[in-house]
Amino acid sequence: MISNKYHKIKLKTMNEYIIDEEYVYRLNDEKNNIWDIYKNGNKNPKSCKQLYKYYSLNLYSIDALLRNYFYLANPSSFNDPFDCNINLIKDVQNISKYTSVKRNNVRNIGICCLSETLDNHLMWAHYTNNYNGFCLGFRGDNIDANANREIFPRHSFTKVIYPASPVSIEQQLPFAQNYLFTTKFKHWEYEQEWRLIAEITNEREMIFYPESVEAIYIGHSIVDTNPSAYKLLLEIQEIKFPQIPVYVVYPAPFELKLKFEKVWN
């Protein structure tokens, strides 16, 4: 992890650092050196009422559902090589060791990505393999409440920012690490992403409470082409999440929007 040790460096003002016309970091707690991010003058929230985790259908996602955990991935596995890219930080020591295509390879950091949005066509196309997957709906206010403090002593839950033109910032800034792991290009803004970020030693599975799941949403391609997988998902729901509803998601037949058909509970 990048050191968050603070050195006196020249900021845009004494208590704020301007990223672009939308985003500004501001010092709100001088005693504890706590900086918060503002978008268009409004402080970014620390929690979200509802969040969604998208999954393609595979053995890993079935395992995560059955054993109720978030997998904290190395950013090098992300679909955007500019996500968590070390070039967001100036003057990183030994930067020459990073290859041009692996500048987001951070082995001691794990990240799980969630979204505020459920009814975005692109999210279902990209992250459930064209509706051949599922999505879990969570209460967002305690998304990391079950994080084992011994396994993940340093972790955070943060809203992603989307500057129009991300700048490289000084690594000595106290928010440099947060900036590195929560900054994406503007064209990704449709994802409305939040991130669980944790320092990793050995474990990358962060357990979540089954009670924090509010609904399961299943892409229609599973129902249409893989009835065995559909039945398996319903059986897992009955075992692990018996009180929550299940929906099948598909394009509405007479409207240009998604339809969520309740099929259980």
From TrEMBL:
<protein>
    <recommendedName>
        <fullName>DUF2971 domain-containing protein</fullName>
    </recommendedName>
</protein>
<dbReference type="Pfam" id="PF11185">
    <property type="entry name" value="DUF2971"/>
</dbReference>
<dbReference type="InterPro" id="IPR021352">
    <property type="entry name" value="DUF2971"/>
</dbReference>
